[in-house]
Amino acid sequence: MAALFPRLPRWSIAILTALVAVGGFLANALDIEPRTTYPDPVVVAIDYGPAADEVGRQRDEVEVAHRHGMTVLDALQHAADVSLTEDDPLHPDAIDAINGVRTDLEQSRFWVFSVDGEHATDAADLLVLEPGQKITWEYVVPDVTVVIDYGADAGLSARAIREVQIPFVDGMNALDALQAAANVELTQVDPSHPAAVDAVDGVRTDLEASRFWVYEVNGRAAMVMAQDFELGAGFEVRWEYMVPPVTVTIDYGAEVGLSSLAKRTAEVPFTDGMTALDAVQAVADVALTRIDPRHPAAVDAVDGVKTDLEASRFWVYDVNGQMAEVMAQENVLRPGYSVDWKYITPNVTVVIDYGPMSEGPFPRANRTEQIAFADGITALAALRQVAQVELTQVDPNHPMAVDAVDGVRTDLERGRFWVYEVNGQIVEVMAQDSVLKPGFEVRWSYQSFADQPADDAAAEAEADVEAAERIASNAAAEAAGERITLPPARIDTGRSALGFVDAIDSAGGEN
Fold first, then answer.
1. Which of 16, 71, 109, 381 fits a disulfide with 104 by CB distance 3.0 to 4.6 angstroms?
2. How many domains does the chain have?
3. Averaged over 78-85, what is the pLDDT?
4. Angle at which helices 454-479 and 497-510 cross, to 10°
5. Are 27 and 52 part of one and the same domain?
6. For 286-306, b where at least 16 C-beta lie within 10 A, e where not — what string?
7. Alpha helices in 147-265, H assignment, sequence order
8. Between vectors from CA 490 to CA 489 and to CA 492, what angle results, nearest 5°?
9. Are residues 386 and 440 in the same domain?
10. Is the same domain home to 357 and 392?
11. Do residues 350 and 404 touch, judged by C-beta distance below 8 A?
12. What's the mean pLDDT in 35-51?
């Protein structure tokens, strides 16, 4: 030691030796790692990418002495002027700028790094470097991804789907991106409209077969022409050669209480020759039945909801909103068609004929209404669903009768009243007792005695005489002690009570 420091007093050498010993002791006690510089430096490369013009150079490359525990961020801060952002609390050490070239999230421009050519998954302030490693920082604008689906999966072409990365440039639109990725032909059907894509790599639009090119951006269908849709960096544009699918809607009758299954809609890829039956079989469990072997099988059940002919519940379908007139297996569809299957009970039809009130200075238009069938519905209940009805009770021993419909009131003095018939037949019970079935038609008519034709009046007079004769005959039999059975009388509220009494008197007089 004295030989190393010949000019120092002996006591100073002793002090220096003591300090070294104490330092070593403290380092061991506090577990402090010495800052060792390794012979192999790390290399920091900075590629300014689209900002090269801004800084006046494309690339920097700097060697930085490696130290134990050095991170990627440490190395960058030794090699360049770095500012960090505090906008994201989850990434407090995210890079805001390197040598003045700033991250711009709105323009999708930012800094990324790789180590030895491998893109890192750890944050720059967490990834510890080894001596001799190379870190490359790149100022990037994400590419635009163009996906082209030529319809191979649907049998529309033999070309496989492919994906192409296109460098983003400001102002790029969806058509630009496609033209950069493929051979595109345009067509202009109408000179007042922009040109549309006619073919991509030879796969051509065929309007007669409903085959054409459509596109979407970031998973959403575009509503403007491709040349009008401006892209952003990192966007994905998907071009698809397609045939519009067939839309199938199945209404199980839940809204009218016929089942508990909710109405649903599904899309079915179109295939040549597809029928309305094929379409529903593609999305539901369908059972068929063949009542008559001479006729094609009919739909018996869809997803377990079964036809019930006794209850007049069955499956029907329409195409594009029009009720079909052929069997479902005979109705050939076209691309984009909509097929609606419905489990129904036929409606009840209510016809209101205001008779003499349909003419004059304040006429009421006769009308026909459809109402949903419900179990137990009566002729009166059906009327009350479509019109304002007032009831009256002339005799407390009898049920209420219809007094007025939509303000048109019974007028016995003038011989005007309301009558009804079901399916064209006069019913001999009160309307509240006449239970309807699905598909029935109830006709309510405001009539008067004067409305009856002469032939009808003559026939009714003859019937009155026959009834009167029966009454007289029965009365005589009863007086003689014989047991009699009266035939049921036909009650018609349109008949004249006075005429009937006159007929009885005439019959009695003859006996």
1. 109
2. 6
3. 92
4. 50
5. no
6. beeeeeeeeeeebbebbbebb
7. 174-181
8. 135
9. yes
10. yes
11. no
12. 81
Instruction: Determine the pLDDT at residue 192.
Output: 79
Q: How far is CA 107 from the centre of its chain?
A: 34
Q: Is 307 a domain residue?
A: yes
My answer on whether 227 and 278 are in the same domain is: no
pLDDT score, position 459: 55
Residues 354 and 446 in one domain: yes
Contacts 24+ apart (CB under 8 A), 364-371: 364/406, 364/408, 371/347
Structure tokens at 346: 């036929």
The answer to the question of residue 37 being in a domain is: no
% of the chain at pLDDT higher than 70: 77
Distance in angstroms (rounded) separating the CA atoms of residues 402 and 446: 11
161 contacts 154 by C-beta, under 8 angstroms: no
* Shared-domain flag, residues 369 and 447: yes
Domain-terminating residue out of 451, 481, 501: 451
Range 240-265 average pLDDT: 89
Contacts of 453 (CB under 8 A, 6+ apart): none
- Judge whether 291 lies within some domain: yes
**Residue 328: what pLDDT?**
94
Give the tokens for residue 357. Answer: 């009130």
CATH number of the domain that residue 331 is part of: 2.170.130.30
Task: Give the mean pLDDT of the chain.
Answer: 81
Planar angle of CA 44, 48, 49, nearest 5 degrees: 125
Q: What is the dihedral of CA 288, 293, 295, 297, to 10 degrees?
A: 10
pTM: 0.48
- pLDDT at 318 (0 to 100): 95
Between 24 and 181, residue with greater pLDDT: 181
N residues, the chain: 511
- Tell me the residue range of the domain where 226 lies: 144-242
Structure tokens at 111: 């800094």
